[in-house]
Give the backbone structure.
Amino acid sequence: MKTDMEYRRLGKSGLKVSALSFGSWVTFSNQLKEKDALEIMSYAYDNGVNFFDNAEIYANGESEIIMGKILKKTGWGRDTYIVSSKVFWGGELPTQIGLSRKHIMDGCHAALKRLQVDYLDLFFCHRPDQETPIEETVRAMDVLIRQGKVLYWGTSEWEAKQITEAYEVAAKYNLTPPTMEQPEYNMFNRSKIEMDYLPLFKKYGLGTTTWSPLASGLLTGKYNHGFPSNSRVYVEGYEWLREQFESEETIRKIVVVKKLESIAKKVGISLAQLSLGWCLKNPNVSTIILGASQKSQLKENLATLDIMDRITDKIVKEINDKL
Ligand code: NDP
C-alpha cells in the first residue's frame, strides 16, 4: 500500500518538505552498497519522500558518491527532490575542518561533485565552530546562496544563542539568515526542540530537520534483549555506539522502552511507529529524517503516517509520563 505523505513548510520558508525524509548516515557504504541503496531510496521517493540527507563526513564522502550515482541513474527531475550536505569534518588537515570561509567553499564544491548536482537545496554547518567568527560563516553561506550553489543554509546542533547571533549578523549586514537547524529529537532527547529553540521558532520561524528519531534503533525495542547481529552496533567504526548501548544509562532507557512497548501494543502499532508518531505530533518539527538499513524497516516507518489517528493527545501524555 502506498503511504499518503504529508508535506510541511521548512519553518517559515516556502519550501515544502516531506514530514518523513531519509538520511544515509551509518547505512550508505557501510551497510548498503549502491544496488541496495538505490532500492531503498527509490522506495522512499516512490512513497512521497522528497528530502534526502547527507554530509561530507558520512563514510568519508562515499555516502554522497553513492547518493549521487543513484540520483543520476534514476533520472529523477531535479525539481522533484531536495538534497542536502553538511560541512565541518572534511578531512584531517587544519584547512579541511570547521566553518572557515575556505572550508565552507571547498566543502560545498566537493559535495556538489560527489552528489553530481548543480546546487544543494540545503547546506548545514554540521556543528558550531568556536574558532571561526559566526559572521565569517554567515558571509560564506550568503555568497554560496548568491552564487546559486546553495538554496537554504542552516545549522546542526548549534546552541540557541549561536543561532540567534547568526540571525543578528545576517540582519545587520543584509545577508541571508539560516532557514533550518538539524537537532537530535526523540523521546530521550527533547530539550533543544521543546525548550531551547522555542524563542527561535516564534521570532524567526526556524525550521527543523530532526535526526535519530529512534535513538539509533533503541526506540524500536530491538535492543531489549541483547544486540541483533545485523545491527549498526557491529558496523566497523561504530564501536562507540556499542559501548554507549552497554552503558548504565542505556540499561535504564531500556526499562522505559519496555514500558513504551506496552503502550504501542495497546494501540495496535509497532514501537517504532509510536516513537516516530510521537515526534511527528510536534508542530515545530518540519521533517523527521529516517534511517533504515532494510526496506522492511523503511516500509514500517513510513506507514506511521497511516496510524497517526491512534496517537491521540491522551496517548502522548501517557508516553510522556513514562519518560
Ligand atoms: P534512527 O534513530 O531512526 O536509527 C535508524 C536505524 O535504526 C536504522 O538504520 C536501523 O538500524 C534501525 N531501524 C530503523 N527502523 C527500524 C525498524 N522499523 N525496526 C528495527 N530497526 C529499525 O535514525 P539515524 O540515527 O539513522 O538518523 C537518521 C538520519 O539523521 C541520518 O541518516 C542522518 O541523515 C541524520 N543524522 C544527522 C546527524 C547530525 O549531526 N546532523 C547525526 C545523526 C544522524 P540497524 O541497521 O541497526 O537495523
Observations:
- Residues 248-267 form the longest helix (20 residues).
- Residues 23-27, 31, 53, 156-157, 182, 211-217, 220, 222, 231-232, 272, 289-293, 297, 300-301 surround NDP (CB under 6 Å).
